[in-house]
Amino acid sequence: MEKRQQWDSRMIFIFAAIGSAAGLGNAWRFPYMAASNGGGAFLIPYFIALITAGIPLLILEFGIGHKFQAGAPTAFSKVKKGWEGLGWWSIGVSFVIVTYYAVIMAWVFDYLWYSLSLAWGDAPADFFLNNVLKLSEGPGHLGGFSIPVLIGLILAWLAVYWTIRDGVKSVGKVVKWTVPLPIIMLGILVIRGLTLPGAIDGINYYLNPDFSKLLDPKVWASAYGQVFFSLSVAFGVMIAYASYLPKKSDITNNAFITAFANCGISFMAGFAVFGTMGYMAAEKGASVAEVAGTGGIGLAFWVYPEAIRLLPFGSVVFALVFYIMLLTLGIDSFFSLVEGVVAGVSDKWGFGKKKTTIGVILVGFVISLIYATKGGLHWLDIVDRYVNNYGIIGVALFETIAIGWIYKSRKLREYVNPISEVHLGGWYDVLIKFIAPLALAGILVWNIVQEIIDVTQGNAYGGYPVWAIAVGGWLVAIVLIVGSIILGKSKSSYVMEEASEEVE
Ligand code: PHE
Known about the structure:
Elements: H1 10-21, H2 24-36, H3 43-68, H4 72-79, H5 84-115, H6 124-132, H7 147-164, H8 168-178, H9 180-194, H10 199-207, H11 217-231, H12 237-242, H13 252-284, H14 288-292, H15 296-309, H16 315-349, H17 353-368, H18 376-416, H19 426-456, H20 466-489
Helix pairs in contact: 1-8, 1-13, 1-16, 2-11, 2-13, 2-15, 3-4, 3-11, 3-13, 3-18, 3-19, 4-5, 5-7, 5-16, 5-17, 5-18, 5-20, 6-15, 7-16, 7-17, 8-16, 9-13, 9-16, 10-13, 11-19, 16-17, 18-19, 18-20
The protein binds phenylalanine.
């Protein structure tokens, strides 16, 4: 058995955790979620979700990763015999996400290249869908690969291999760049966005509070979902990262720093995006709502490119700044997901880290090929929706039960407090045992009820045929859950040795 690696310093660990948390979710999910769920008023459910569930779960994951010095499956098996499957479930969710996150990174690689000539011309949406993706008419038509996407995909996986080839040693070197760089790029884009004429209308659209939205359960479900996705909790990633900490390490304060840095980046992204949208609306004589679209992929690959084209000067430079930001923001989230899976697999079977890394990357690459086909975007959209609405929320719910009730959150506090700067009081038990699980269970039930209503009324998600939803959504969920139970019951070959204390 290889000796467990350790981070070089506390700072590098925090960088890696922030790198995982701050990803595409901050750049293109948060701003739109705020804008469409009550603007400034959305910050209320968002912060409540952060305090009642996001940060407590982050502390939980840092805590058990550190205590048990293992990836999620092994860590949960030590929490309580029989709970290993929960760890596999979280890793399964990660694995599903990583296969399509890879393809999004592939597009970003492509767009770095296209930026040099502003290749999208004056029809960015058409360029993205027809020239780059060569999008087919529906999920039933895969229709071969899109070559540019395939090339980008190979680059993306190679970059990940290069980053994690030596585990936390090489990761530490990369996050020194990939964490500060996107913040600098984002700063440039915020200044550019806010100094454009019309920016103020965009910011109004982003933050103008609509308090009536707070009565809508959907807004609350979105806030909780966003907090989990954004903090990378419930994926096994933070457990794996914390398992590489030395014995004496702060837990709680690291969690607060990670969480607040991550939120700050999200909030900042809103100013860059909507400042620019305000300008674009003014240029086109349209409303911000009309030009801004719905965020996500559309924002990154056709709305923002369109705005860049309309800039008074320096379009190529700002295009490069934007895609370098997306690349550096996303790549450390991408490799953290891979690292979470690698840690889980190698801890369970005692395979060498290097071999496991290559194996996971190869399997991940092969599966991600589905999304590099011409029908790929349809599948990406379906799978993304279902893993987010059910997978993450389900894992988080069971984590709170496993630690709050089975292991006992009091015991976790007693472990964490002596090594941490900020001490957890009895309030932590209330959050982990009651508030977080009740909120999560509420959201899960709400999502399921909505789903049933939508499907029975013939409004399946995104207008996709029900069979595609059944395969990309429900089947994936069943395979993940059944697979996790089977893996959780299978024999492990690791030696239950005490974690070593010395730094290599
Ligand atoms: N938190 C990342 C984002 O906001 C996504 C992610 C989720 C990364 C889970 C790792 C694990 O984009």
